[in-house]
Amino acid sequence: MKKYLGLALTLAVVVAAVGAPWLAATDPMTTDFASGLKPPGSPGHPLGTDQLGRDLLARVLYGARLALFIGVCTVVVTAIVGGLLGLVAGFVERWPSTVIMRLADVQLSFPFILLALTINAIVGLGLRNIILSLSAAGWVVYARVVRGEVLSVKQRDYVHAAAALGVGRPRLLFRHVLPNVAPSIIVVASLQFSQFVVAEAAISFLGFGVQPPTPAWGSMLSESRDFLYVAWWLGAFPGAALALTALGVNLLGDWLRDTLDPKLRV
Amino acid sequence: MRGWIASRLLQTVLVVFLSLTAVFGMVRLSGDPVLLFMPMDIQAKDVNEYRERLGFNDPLLVQYARFMRGAVRGDFGESLRYRRDALGLVLERLPATLLLAGTAMLLTLALAVPLGVATAVRRDGAVDHAGTVLMALGQATPGFWLGLMLIYLFAWLPTGGMGGLAHLVMPAVVLAAFYAARVARLTRSAVLEALGEDYVLTARAKGLAERHVVGKHALRNSAIPIVTLAGLEAGQLLGGAVVTETIFAWPGLGRLTVQALLNRDFPVVMAAVSFTSIVYTLMNLCVDLLYAWLDPRVRLRS
């Protein structure tokens, strides 16, 4: 049940994101001031329009595009960076491990959202920088989980056997250890995904990150605050889209964890 | 035990030191830190004067030593906007955040632990299904959206600023919602795990009433992971407060940080981020010590 709901919601978001240009009747940036703040169900605007007369459905759909793009990019960057650091820390031990784990401790001494927000405010606004700052704040979970997994995997017999047969260390690491820690990386990625998407929205909501008029759920919610009592739909729909995306991916992640790696605690 | 505590303390000192270094380094991520410290529409003359005044012309190591020396004494410089001691501004805002986070924490424990236990005891029953759905929704709902919707729906409650008890309701509920969902989930899985243990079977076999089995045997043994997570989450509340305080115009540390970032008041940013990080690290230390005290296996292993 959980699995199917998670799959259905995630699939719906992916379809919305990929199909936005076809599903949306109008361009998300085209303003039509004369028909501003139309309520949901108005002809031609199923979810209504915003203060500039832009179609809300189109903006929510294009928002899915941006949210998924940022989420996927961040998850890929953090999985590669954090995964590699975790592999090295677990496999090499000695000083690289100490350095990487101290770095992780420092990272963990800041609340995630505060760190991402501050880095973003310093490196500047824009799409690339939001991915950069979320990644800089988010790699550490992978590093920790992967290191722990590597420490246990490298004690297994097949790794010792491969080493005894004279397999070189890089090959040992990437062909024998990595495939066996891959499930944990996938589980962490799926559980981190919604955190990144929500964090991006929160940062854009606070006025950093993605800037208007680009249709991002966070900045749409931020703009909607001025119209809360006049046009509730401006806040309700982008937020609901965000919550449903997080719900879908979380359920999928839970299911992945239960199947791939039930003992993992993230 | 004493050795373990000593090493844990030493480690904490090291982390605080490195975190301060990270704050120093972070401000230099953008290349020219002076531009961060200045309002956008300032003239070149003032920029140069401030570059000299703030010591950005000195070698990096000198700047670093100066920053660390100041930080140890609690001196992060003067707020460029309010022309007052930066750390003083931060400390002024602390009680408001503590009140909010403390209320949210109490709310979390009051809601989440009973819900977690109830769902675990009635596994796969109606209570469990409803509870699990609630937890999944709570975890997926972004606090700032929940805040906006509550403001819209409960317009008769005060929606901004600090005042009587009524002002506390909405921000505390919003801040607690996400954490309550997480703590409830963890309580559920911890109690489920404990219910599968042999001592529960023994307790049942000797005919104890179910409430004793759950209350005295299962719940006590699942207390450790719950305490740990609740403690760690208490730190995350500081992060959550950044967003929640901004929505409800709550005059706390989080709102101060966001405003300082928006106003490019970097001495205040550095003071606030450093302070939050130190508080957060100390909370983690307390959780660790509590954990070791509750579970001797932890301190014996290391």
Helix content of chain A: over 70%
N-to-C SSE series of chain A? Answer: HHHHHHHHHH
Give the % helix of chain B. Answer: over 70%
The profile of the biggest β sheet of chain A is: none
- Tell me the number of strands of chain B: 0
Overall, the morphology of chain B is flat
Chain oligomer state = heterodimer
Mean of pLDDT of chain A: 90
- H/E element order of chain B: HHHHHHHHHHHHHH
Give the radius of gyration of chain A.
22 Å
Task: Report the total helices of chain B.
Answer: 14
Terminus-to-terminus distance of chain A: 22 Å
Strand content of chain B: under 5%
Instruction: Estimate what percentage of residues of chain A fall within beta strands.
Output: under 5%
How would you describe this structure to a colleague?
The complex is a heterodimer of chains A (266) and B (302). Chain A is an all-alpha fold and 266 residues long. Chain A is built from 10 helices and no strands. The model of chain A has no long low-confidence stretch (mean pLDDT 90). Chain B has 302 residues and is mainly α. Chain B contains 14 helices and no strands. In chain B, helix 8 crosses helix 10 and helix 12 packs antiparallel against helix 13. Chain B is flat.
Tags for this model:
heterodimer; A: 266 residues; mainly alpha; 0% strand; elongated; B: 302 residues; 78% helix; flat
Topology (elements, then pairings):
The complex is a heterodimer of chains A (266) and B (302).
Chain A: H1 2-23, H2 56-92, H3 94-108, H4 112-123, H5 127-138, H6 140-153, H7 157-164, H8 169-205, H9 217-224, H10 233-260
Chain B: H1 2-27, H2 33-37, H3 44-53, H4 60-72, H5 86-121, H6 126-140, H7 143-153, H8 165-195, H9 198-205, H10 210-221, H11 223-247, H12 253-262, H13 266-294, H14 296-301
Structure in a nutshell:
The complex is a heterodimer of chains A (266) and B (302). Chain A is mainly alpha-helical. Chain A contains ten helices and no strands.
